[in-house]
Amino acid sequence: MEEIIKGKAYVLGENIDTDQIIPAKHLVYSLSDPEERKLYGQYALSGVPDTKAGLPQGNARFVEDGSDRAVYKIIVAGKNFGCGSSREHAPVCLNIAGVQAVVAPSYARIFYRNAVDGGFFVPFESLEDLSHTIRTGDEIEIRVKDERLTNLTTGKTHRLRPLGDVADILKAGDVFAYARKAGLIKAPTVSTGTSPESFQMSED
Amino acid sequence: MGMTITEKILARHSGRRTVGPGDNIWVDVDVLMTHDVCGPGTIEIFRKQFGEKARVWDAEKVVVIPDHYIFTADQYAHRNVDILRAFVKEQQLPYFYDVGTPKYKGVCHIALPEEGHTRPGEVLFGTDSHTCTAGAFGEFATGIGNTDAALILGIGKLWVKVPPTMRFVFEGPLPPYLMAKDLILNIIGDIGVDGGTYKAMEFAGDGVYSLSIEERMTLCNMVIEAGGKNGVIAADEKTAAFVRERTDKPFEVVTNDLDAKYESVRVYRSKEIEPVVAKPHSPDNRATVREVAGTKLDRAYIGSCTGGKLTDFRAAAKILRGRRVKVDTFIVPATNQVMQGLKVERLDGQTLEEVFLAAGARIAEGASCAACLGGPSDTFGRLNKSEACISTTNRNFPGRMGSKTASVYLASPYTVAASAVKGVITDPREFLA
Known about the structure:
- The structure holds 2 protein chains of 2 kinds.
- Helices cover about 20% and strands about 15% of the residues of chain A.
- By secondary structure, chain A is α/β, with parallel strands linked by helices.
- Chain A has a single domain (about 5-180), classed as Aconitase, domain 4.
- Chain A has a 7-stranded mixed β-sheet with strand order 4-3-2-1-5-6-7.
- In chain A, strand 6 and strand 7 (about 155-160) form a beta hairpin.
- Chain A is globular, with a radius of gyration of 16 Å.
- Chain B has 2 domains: about 5-265, Aconitase, domain 3, CATH 3.30.499.10; about 275-430, Aconitase, domain 3.
- Chain B is about 30% helix and about 20% strand.
- In chain B, strands 4-3-2-5-6 form a 5-stranded parallel β-sheet. Chain B has a 5-stranded parallel β-sheet with strand order 18-15-14-19-20. A 4-stranded parallel β-sheet of chain B has the order 10-9-8-11.
- In chain B, helix 2 packs across helix 5, helix 6 packs parallel to helix 8 and helix 12 packs parallel to helix 15 (about 415-420).
- The mean pLDDT of chain B is about 95.
């Protein structure tokens, strides 16, 4: 099995908290209404100060006005990504905007759990802070099995940490699938689609 | 091998004799709390995963407390409370503190203990990062997302990675100008906003045990600002008495084994600590109040789960009594019980409410999270432009209280009140000497 995530990078600094990922005034929209959900994509990362949005230059909008999808599939950030509140709207808004992976040296634990248990994207840990070497717009390729990230724009390759304990949950799809496998949920599997764009490891 | 309080509680709730840091275990949940921001999403996932007709695992263990977006004209916000109402009715949940009824409470983390839902030795999860506040009652309490909460609603269990414990000891009682807020801002300043990531942060020492229950809650409330998984203080007689007054449910106090292993131990001498602030835009951006004294402010804010308890308003009133504020000052009681306390508790003949009004402060129409997290644009006290605010709340990341161009200084109620009187950041010792 070879799992590859490929797309443009959007680069952010350290300690990007959940209020920057999705400001609190937007937390009122429904997560289940297909149209209302899109608002989360539209406002994803809208709380990041302009000068720090899309490093190194800054002033790069993550999602363009009038859209709910970003052209960036991979977020590269500094340490402690997702600190702050427990709002699942944070990983969900990135998922709705089309993010498939985040790469950071470390994460705040609730955000990390939410990303994994909801199966919204893969939170990779990098050995070093790549936000200084990767530039917003660079083409990135992540080979999951190899634990390797390649910057196709510059040709540089970087090691990623093993996914460890959470790999089983990510492979199962989300924590429900994982709990069913473990025999903890007796109820039959209900039709999928908790999140229409829930992350799936691509095979090729 | 000895276990810490956190390890022991998790072991007991996973049916194991012992657990150690790094173990992944499934734990049985005693209480699941949710509110108006994350409840609707949780309910939606629960129904999708367990079926439209599914029942929650144990109605007696679910607590629903709308508190975030209450006093607003935002129709989405009202719709979300309606979703909670419908679910509570369908599932016949006994613990629902509905808006607009005599049962309405206000901020969930203060409402939980007021209503006896926080008990030593238990496991509490909540869909809010400040659920860690309840660690002050000697229990394991932490915040989770909608997905995890939906899983708990269905099966009453959640997987947990056992955290190592960092121990913080305060020796000696606090000097009269210090509050728990100064202690925790000092710790966060020392270890950084990720210094406690994935870890249990335990507070001990006679300094901690000299604190009131509400002040202990302030300590545990802000462990999440250091990335902590949970904060915990072993229950003592004060804790047990507080809990027994509010619930008939039995509980068992859990203590550290004598040979418990800590990842680290830091010892502070309380009298050597100074009043501090966290400067914009991070809770670990610590400075002593003396270092930033004179910084110009546009407003002051006293409220939230961290700084909107009766103890916090008592402290603020001590300084505001007989004085006038120089900047717009917003008073937001965390719960209706605190709001009621302002009306009945007196300082030199005046009620606390009279003290605040005479000082020129504004009091919120009702208890809620209000502007601590910004909220809808019409939220009381929200920072809608590039203002500088000193606040008793817990976060000051960009945009936390509204505008991302605003600047927020976090401080104790003493320091906030002293600064409101002067219009610039002011050391409370000027008033408390």
